[in-house]
Amino acid sequence: MSNIPYSTGCFPLHLALLSCGENFHPLGYWTVIGKEPFRFLVSVGLGNYTLKLLRQHNEAALHFFPWNAREWVVRSGYISGRDVSKASRFNLNLVAAEKLQATKLVDGFENAYECVVLSEVKSISVDHAQFALEVVAAHENVPAEKCDPILFFTQKNFINLRGEQWTFKR
Asked: Residue 7 domain-assigned?
């Protein structure tokens, strides 16, 4: 085992929003793991309510929102879906997914991907659960070269591709 301390030198990362059922939260730890078939690997913090829903429904949607949505996207990670409807709290519309049964899409995304769980990858992390997801529907509203992504360095520090910085304050 390595004893190298964690470092943020690998940041910034494109911040996503993971929805499952009618709940959602920001997600920084994700990557593409296959193009044919199209698959993602996501890492969800233990204790997160979305993790419970992901295990229950075996499906989720990975959304990418523009920089101007950063405040509610980030803030949604500081509110538990166990206690409140985040969509109501942030005055957001949830729309039916094309292929998913329980999971709604959060309206206003640049791009979103409906996914089913292929497997939960065990024993990689002690503080996150990893899932291999297969994309079953893609909603690409904005071409990649025109996206205005939310990039994050830490849980509270964000930047966009133009170098504009923003710090989340509770």
From this structure: no
- Whether 2 is in a domain gets the answer no
Token pair recorded at residue 131: 């899932």
SS3 content of the chain, % helix, strand, coil (to 5): 15, 40, 40
Domain of 54, in residue numbers: 13-167
For 94, the token pair is 């949830």
CA distance 56 to 120: 12
User: What band does 155 get if pLDDT is binned at 50, 70 and 90?
Assistant: confident
Q: Please report whether residue 151 resides in a domain.
A: yes
Beta bridge partners of 16: 27
Phi-psi region at 16: left, alpha or beta (left = phi > 0; alpha = psi -120 to 50): beta
What pLDDT does residue 142 have? 97
Collect contacts of 162-165 with beta carbons under 8 A, ≥24 apart. 164/67
pLDDT of residue 3 exceeding 90, the answer is no
44-68 residues labelled b (16+ CB within 10 A) or e (exposed): beeebbbbbbbeebbbbbbbbbbbe
Furthest-apart CA pair in the chain: how many Å? 46
Q: What is the mean pLDDT of residues 75-95?
A: 96
pTM of the model: 0.94
